[in-house]
From TrEMBL:
The lineage of its organism: Bacteria, Pseudomonadati, Bacteroidota, Cytophagia, Cytophagales. The keyword Signal applies. It comes from Hymenobacter luteus. This is Peptidase M28 domain-containing protein. The keyword Acetylation does not apply. Residues 271-478 form the Peptidase M28 domain. Keywords: Signal.
Length: 501
């Protein structure tokens, strides 16, 4: 009922916002070629800081996709866009583009017992993928995968310790323990499924045990998909349990009983879409798309007593950067129009940008380029990165050249290209909202100041953001978009562009 009440309020807010947001088109004095220089002074540090501390506040409870908190944050963004004078460019004359999130979770009715003794779900044991299944049988304990040789395991419930994956995640890679655990589970599960087992129980090793609540929160959340995306095909249940449970599993006559159930339902997420018209009659129907995401991870495992994952850098920084660029564009419009898309559900798998790339609210052919940002406010003051700037990730040399020139002329960051290399272990290029557009054949680049130790923890707070650096990054992104807008010809996709995956 709380969710339904909030959704009704959001619909009313949508109506109210759309009723008062139509801005006048260009007058005869502005309907001409835009001035040659971007108005960098219009992007003000005090306004960026004000918006950042508001959006990354505990009030929004981490803006988790598909929750009332994400929807409230989206309404906040839309209201700020309205105040900036941006036109609504979502569905039906509003700032919003709703889309359906499919979420599949492990049902609370799930029951697990070993030898008749219950295991507490999400405390002692984690179901790694939601499904409807029943297991009831003796447990076959294996010390390692070597024990599978010359043994018939078809139809058996197999338990064994989690083993280190091969290869290990790269040293100091973000979310290292989680990647270690997920990779280990994936490799062992695949090997055991190939032997025809009926169920798999893996006991945490010394590396995975300290991070079980963190990793387990991911499993408790379940799966997020768009309706067009298929569910994982496997029907073999895989359980992750604490080290202490190994004693029960190894006991003579150990028997596992599991009644697994899944919930499968739809609820809304949303993109926020706004527009600032261009001044050139011949080019104002074309759009430079500025992209970011307004969601984050919501309420999670407490760290030092803090359970709200505010996502100040990831990605309130870029959400407020887009608002600042919108204000600058209104003060000095570019030749082409600027389109602003604050995507939802990025943290759940780039779902908002995937939806918009497939269902744009403007003619897809009118999108000249996508300038995406993700995490733009941390690390050394003069450091930054532009992903999509070197092959195989570069899909438009012309667009990259404009970004590099804007940096050279205006912001002068020292650029780190190593994170854009195909061999970089983070695969950072594939983890933000420019990707669906690049795959759709639209020139796209990604502005970032890269990862840091507070990434995806409750420590990602507004107080830790270098606001001066964020303001400078915002100006770089804006100046690049301005150059794209002013160019006589559209930037084009490189004919040999092909991603490595």
């Amino acid at each position: 009922m709380r969710f339904a009440t909030l959704l009704t309020s959001l619909i009313l807010a949508t109506i109210l916002l759309s009723a008062c947001t139509r801005t006048p088109g260009p007058t005869s004095s502005t309907a001409a070629k835009a001035p040659g220089e971007p108005l960098l002074s219009a992007i003000r540090e005090d306004e960026v800081k004000r918006d950042l501390f508001a959006l990354a506040d505990d009030n929004f409870r981490g803006r988790r996709a598909g929750t009332p908190d994400e929807l409230r944050a989206a309404v906040w963004v839309a209201e700020r866009a309205r105040e900036a004078g941006l036109e609504p460019a979502g569905d039906d004359g509003t700032y919003f583009q709703f889309y359906p999130l499919r979420r599949v979770t492990v049902a609370a009715s799930t029951r697990l017992t070993i030898g008749g003794k219950p295991l507490a779900l999400w405390k002692d044991a984690w179901v790694t993928s939601p499904l409807n299944a029943r297991l009831d049988g003796p447990v076959v304990w294996l010390n390692s995968l070597a024990d599978t040789v010359r043994r018939d395991l078809r139809g058996k419930i197999v338990a064994m310790p989690l083993q280190a994956p091969t290869p290990l995640p790269a040293p100091k890679m973000s979310l290292w323990a989680m990647r270690y655990t997920l990779a280990g589970i994936g490799q062992q599960s695949a090997a055991l499924r190939s032997r025809g087992v009926a169920g798999i129980v893996l006991t945490a090793d010394a590396t995975a045990e300290p991070s079980l609540e963190f990793v387990g929160h991911r499993y408790e959340d379940g799966l997020y998909l768009l309706p067009s995306m298929p569910l994982p095909a496997s029907s073999v249940p895989v359980l992750l349990v604490r080290q202490a449970v190994a004693t029960q599993l190894r006991a003579k006559g150990a028997r596992l009983q599991a009644e697994l159930a899944a919930n499968d339902y739809l609820y809304p997420s949303m993109n926020v879409v706004a527009r600032a018209p261009g001044t050139d009659p011949a080019r104002r129907a074309e759009h430079v798309l500025f992209s970011g995401h307004h969601d984050h991870d919501g309420i999670g495992t407490p760290v030092a007593g803090d359970s709200i994952w505010n996502g100040a850098d990831d990605n309130a920084t870029v959400s407020v950067a887009l608002l600042a660029i919108g204000r600058a564009w209104k003060q000095r419009p570019g030749a082409r129009s600027a389109l602003f898309v604050w995507h939802g559900a990025e943290e759940r798998g780039l779902l908002g940008s995937r939806w918009y790339a497939e269902h744009p609210t403007v003619n897809k052919a009118s999108i000249v380029a996508v300038l995406n940002g993700d995490m733009m406010g941390r690390n050394a003051p003069d450091s930054a990165a532009l992903l999509g700037s070197i092959p195989p990730h570069r899909n438009s040399k012309a667009l990259v050249d404009m970004a590099l020139k804007a940096n050279q002329d205006h912001t002068k960051f020292n650029l780190d290209t190593s994170w854009d290399e195909a061999r970089h272990p983070e695969g950072w290029y594939f983890r933000s909202d420019h990707l669906p557009y690049a795959r759709a054949g639209i020139p796209a680049i990604f502005f970032t100041t890269l990862l840091h130790p507070d990434y995806h923890t409750p420590r990602d707070e507004a107080s830790r953001i270098d606001v001066a650096k964020l303001t400078r990054m915002t100006r770089w992104m804006y100046a690049t978009g301005w150059a794209v807008s002013a160019a006589p010809q559209r930037v084009t996709v490189d004919p040999d562009f092909k991603l490595e995956r």
